[in-house]
Amino acid sequence: MKKKESARKKKRYTNRRLSERYHYVGEEKTTTGLHLTHYDTHAKSTGAIDPASASFKQLTNPKQINWIEVRGLTNDELISRIVREFGLHNVDAKDILTPQHVAKIEEYEGRLLIVLNTCYLDDVSELTPEHVAILVVENTIVTFTERDSDLFASVHQAIDENVLRIREKPIGLLLAFLLNALAASLVEHASRVEEALGDLEETLLDPDGETTNIGPDIQRYRRAYMLVRRNAQPLKEQFPKLLRATNGLITQELLPIYYDIQDQLVFVLQATESCREITASLVDLYIANNDLRMNQIMKRLTIVSTIFIPLTFLAGIWGMNFKGMPELDWRYGYAAAWAIMILTALGTWLYMKRKDWY
Hints:
Layout: H1 2-12, E1 33-39, E2 44-49, E3 65-71, H2 76-85, H3 90-97, E4 104-108, E5 111-121, E6 127-137, E7 140-145, H4 153-161, H5 171-205, H6 214-243, H7 255-318, H8 333-354
Parallel strand pairs: 3-7
Antiparallel strand pairs: 1-2, 1-3, 4-5, 5-6, 6-7
Helix pairs in contact: 2-3, 5-6, 5-7, 6-7, 7-8
């Protein structure tokens, strides 16, 4: 485990120096695949792109809206070529190839680059980070994701069904759908973690609930909401830069949609803040329940010890075997000893019960 963490830390710092070529330093092994979707009011087509194409920009249709999906970042040379072909600097390729890079929105002349982080549920239902980048150039959007996932499945559905007349609108609406898909994903994860923490709280407050194994669950959900917050907060802070963009990408008609996306990010932060407070109370409650459980155990042990103290005293007296001890020669001495011990134990138990000591 330590070796894996050490390797991860080493990878994260690979792209820190300026270089002519940068490498993907994440852990996803998805082979880089390219998909092109272009559409207009009358038609839509989707297909795979050969990574060996001479020019990706020439594959786009200047009369339609073009969306190139780059799924998987392992082919760093291909990523760098795409970035340069669409007029960005090589350093921008470094930002795309570096997972968990700080979220940012950069506006260049006629170009917009959005770098952010989101998360997804892996095969064992653990929340895992994913790096995403969006490049906007004229009538073309290029999205970069670490996995070949259904992260933007809702966007494809919206294009097919012409939701909000997306196929009749400029590219700013497609960007809004992409950002909304990412924001909705964060909202979903934040809400799921908040609900799970609420269920844990009910379990801890239930006197008959099983709480012995809740500690690891609290820690797991704590890591989950911190991941969601770490992904949402930088994007929310950068979002006003997108609203102030001067490239005409966001028209007055699209402003309400972008404000709604910003509201979703605010909701995520509020939900994660609620998760933080619930987690703090859960930790206190969990510790208090453990202390209470330990007190109950100690109380039972004390009761048992208290009952056996007089019995031990009696056994010690009769175990000395003095010659002048008449009980040793008495025919009913053994039965009498048992009777005295049972009555003593019963009397001690009744006395403690009357005093309500347990």
